[in-house]
Design goal:
The protein is an alpha/beta fold and 624 residues long. It is 40% helix and 19% strand. Among the domains are: 110 residues, Helix Hairpins (Orthogonal Bundle); 132 residues, NAD(P)-binding Rossmann-like Domain (Rossmann fold, 3-Layer(aba) Sandwich), CATH 3.40.50; 142 residues, NAD(P)-binding Rossmann-like Domain (Rossmann fold, 3-Layer(aba) Sandwich). Helix 14 links the parallel strand 14 and strand 15. The longest helix is centred in the N-terminal third of the chain and has 38 residues.
Length: 624
Amino acid sequence: MNKRPSFRKKIRYWFDRLMGKGTIALVGMLFLVTAIVVLIAGVLGSICSGDLSAGKSIWQSLMHAIDAGTLGGDDTANLGFVVLMSMVTLCGIFVTSILISIISSGFEEKLNSLRKGFSVVIEQNHTVIIGFNEGIYTLLSELIEANSNQKRGCILVIGEQDKEYMEEEIKAHIDNFKTTEIICRSGNFTNNHILEMASVETARSIIINQQDDFNVIKALLATVAYLKLKDAFDNDAHITTLIHDEGNMDAAKIAGEGKAEVIYLTDILARIIAHTCRQPGMSLVLTDFFDFDGDEFYFEEFPELMGKTFGSILNCFVSSVVVGIERNDALMLNPPMDTVIESGDRIIHLAEDDGISVPKNHTPELQMDYEQKGSPANLPYHLLILGYNASLPIILHELDQYVADGSTVVLACPVLTDGMQLEEAFTHLQFSARQCNIYNKGVLMEMLADGITDVLLLNQSADGAEGAVDKGADEADSKTLLLLLQLRDIASRKQLKFNITSEMHSVENQRLSRVAKVNDFVVGSTIANLILTQVSENRELAALFEDILDADGSEIYMKPASSYVQLGRSVNIYTLTEIARKRSEIVVGYKTKDSNGLSIVLNPVKDTFVTFTKEDYLIVIAED
């Protein structure tokens, strides 16, 4: 038989529960105790004094409770009244002290809660980033730049780290927030309460910034489930994320349920490297395309162009470059020049901002007598690859679709396994692998003496799905820096000319390569984060970027300016656009070489004039 708890235990249990209810309950209890004491003392005081009514006595009791100085004005002749009011005053002092302590503790608790990031955010049309890691700084920098033309922008970051830590790290890495406010919230991203605090259902876009594919898929599932719970799944906001392992792509797309734009990171980086290692300066072009600093791609409808051919509108815009058409949700990058613009077509163009490009119905001045006919010779390509990671098969597959017959690729690694032999038959290039100490300068000099025109340094910690900047990745970056310095020294000592492309993982280590005065092109996951940010702002760009980097159809090429126009002649961009149009190509800019190194100019104003030398190149969108 259960023993009934004693009255004392019940009172203690009731008091413990009351104390656990928080600040408001404790304040209410103190007010109740004070009211009881004041009422009882007021009634007793009325009896003791004899000349005070109950109402006045209760008022006197209240004054004694809230102001100890009132006791000094009492008539000491009535000893009973003085003793009673003294007790009320002591009780008031005790209650006031406890009240001050409770209010102080309550404020401190609330401030701690705010510092920890536990308050609900009331925002509309903001960007939510789920995940805090090294990639966050690139994402934030680009989104801040994207919001710079808005009166007020807001980015909300959800991380498992403390809110104060995240805020301090962001301030340490980003100098100017411009018109954007960054809010951090701390917690588990799979918790609906955390997603509600971030007001995910009212966001403009959602970026999942997780370095592990399993966490990416978990975040997709949690976000989609939350949006459905809030009846916000069908709103205009979309989710953007990166996947590191191709085997997880299908699962990620299923988890996103069509709401997510999933980008395969390894494929993106491999294609970028394949473009860059055979065309020096291409990483600068792609970075300019993918970031918000400068010109971006926009999709706009121009009814006044309806009925005109695509080729005829290329020179209609003075300060933007037309690159394609969007028709019925399908993209056409560099379509046939006789394609007629139809109603509902949106023009894809590279411009400084949306809404500022206005087509002009004019006849530009053309200098067609300066045209240089002919095409550059597609010479064999000889590439030395130092290091191996999982992206190499994709890089070689992409290269094989661009290079001329007789091209060679030599892979050199400290440890060569059977999986690195890559016995796949290539169409144009000849592949071979060699096991050697690539960090030995003598070995490097021997390999570079075999007519190598280009060198690619692969980050040897980049295989697998992790992508975290851990000790292994940082050590691999250090080895890459050593190789860069050795290659530059060999080129200087032996008077050799070869282009160097290096893949690094850490942004900080990329900066070190520049500090070390190694004037080469570094490709890393930063570009992938630039693409991620662009797609988060405009989902249609995902298909455009994929088309630009894909070997099928039209791609970006750098071709000698001497193949288009006579060298030493001052020509305007209108003329270059027309010359390229006749070859079914689109001029998007040019590359020049000066005392400071390479200079890339994209989307030049068409009425400006430029004079080319034999070392200058046009940047064009073409099929070949």
